[in-house]
Amino acid sequence: MEELMEQRHDGSDVITYTDYTVYKQDLRSDLQRAAESFVRIGYMLKVARDTRILEGSGYASVNEFAKKR
Prior knowledge:
It is a single chain. The protein has two helices and two strands. The protein is of the alpha+beta class. The chain has one domain (about 5-69). A two-stranded antiparallel ribbon has the order 1-2. It is elongated and about 50 Å long.
């Protein structure tokens, strides 16, 4: 039995899981990537705050940059 099937529905991709273990692994993987991205974004904003990287960008502060971007 196929564990994961991709189907087209009205032009969009739909993923149908037929195996709970595969679903759980995919979800865990996506949650891990989201957590890592969250930490990375925080680090990048810290770099912007602590360095002169935004100089000449037109943003007065890292807060303005984060809000508008």
